[in-house]
Amino acid sequence: MALAPQTIALLKSARALVNSLPADGVLLLAEGDIAFDEARKYLGTCKLLVAFTTDARPAEPDPDPNLVILDLEGGPIPIQERMSLALLESVRLEHLQPGADVVVLYNGIQVGVEESGGIDSLSLIHLGEHLERLTAKELRHLGTRVPLATLRAVVDLAMQIGREGREGQPTGTLLVVGDTRKVMSYSRPMNFNPFRGYPAKERDVRDPAVREQIKDLAKLEGSIVIQSDGAAVAACMHIEAPDRGYTLSMGLGTRHAAAAAISKCTEAIAVVVSQSTGVVRLFQGGEVVLHIEPLVRPLAWGQFRLETQQEPPVRGGSGEGS
User: Which domains does the chain have, with CATH numbers?
Assistant: First the structure.
């Protein structure tokens, strides 16, 4: 299958960018079958990563040390999300480093989900910036009823609190999302509720302005409870969930114990920001399901990992707050 003239022109431009910047490789988001030999001819020795959805994967090309084939989840997904998935997978498999520069070729002009053309767009991506935001792929694996948009907004908020603190001071907090009625039955107020009386749109964590206001509330004692639709319903809440049925790693304190407990006895997702380290942990079913370490600023997503139980476990909710 011969390459279209515009694809050839973009491949030549990508090669020039890789050589002149220099960049670390070229990512091609393939829309169908592709002539690998032709593409390699125009890219020379540049590293080429080609991302296919699993339902459109071609036959294996001839072995080439500078060619990497990436399998992505199938189905129609927006091009920007697909680009993020491919970049994250490249970092996970160590084909690219978290701080790499990548030239991306893709079809950026799509009339509808089912309609796509050839390669028509070129972008230069700095991974240290682009991978700062958690991709949908990792959060989808949680299998929660909380909508993805809400969960991503809450995680973004937690990451900002973990990296920045508030007014130069480190801040820890607990955000509990979803299954709100049951969560509230296991909670009691420690102070006035700053969200009471405001319309839902002024309490929606998907709004960046609202997230900025919640950062100030994170300095107060207690947890912040958020509905599945993104509306914050209460702050300064003391969690009184049963202190049993979960395992907590050594060194995690009362805030993490509360998160484990409330996620164990409800279907909520509990998101904890550690005051001492800025680490963000997501609890589901009484266990840590995602661990995000803000080791660099901005955050490079090569640093996240799933929590393990290699450290001696502590049963129940003992430990100092963190």
Answer: 5-130 (3.40.1380.20), 136-315 (3.40.1700.10)
